[in-house]
Write a structure and sequence with these properties.
Length: 178
Amino acid sequence: MSLTQLQITSFRNIDSAQLQLSGGLNLIYGLNGSGKTSLLEAIYFLGMGRSFRSHLSQRVINKDSDQLTLFAQLALDRGPAKLGLRRYRNGDIEVRLDGDKLQRLSTLAETLPIQVITPESFALLLEGPKARRQFIDWGAFHTDPQFYLAWSNVRRILKQRNQLLKHEASYQEIEYWD
């Protein structure tokens, strides 16, 4: 999978930009405040439906606009694809893949897999096993199509087992889950 073209409108300090990207390595450089991090954040936003820098999506919309628009052309294993996202200041979001409106944001992550590493990523070392597990799970989600199904089944089973433990179920009930 590769990102071949990107159009950004009203995203943070980027009023309008269009980039042609190579299928290989792309170097992004420029002066401080020129929008390098905003460009990376826009790509992440297109793949996740949210920012890695702010929990409030309204903050990424340019102050002079009531919406942001991100559009990409992708080279996927199944062939070329077009991915578009529009986020409104009121919180509404519209996402399209090849012209079809997407009902689930998780389809974004399946289509444009992204793993971000920021200066804050050192938390993986400090926060303990949960943060590291989430990071590894996210990587596995993108490399193995069956991973998500197996992962969600394991989470559901663990929830059920933990509920039994919490309510002091009998050994026979718990033994089934172990």
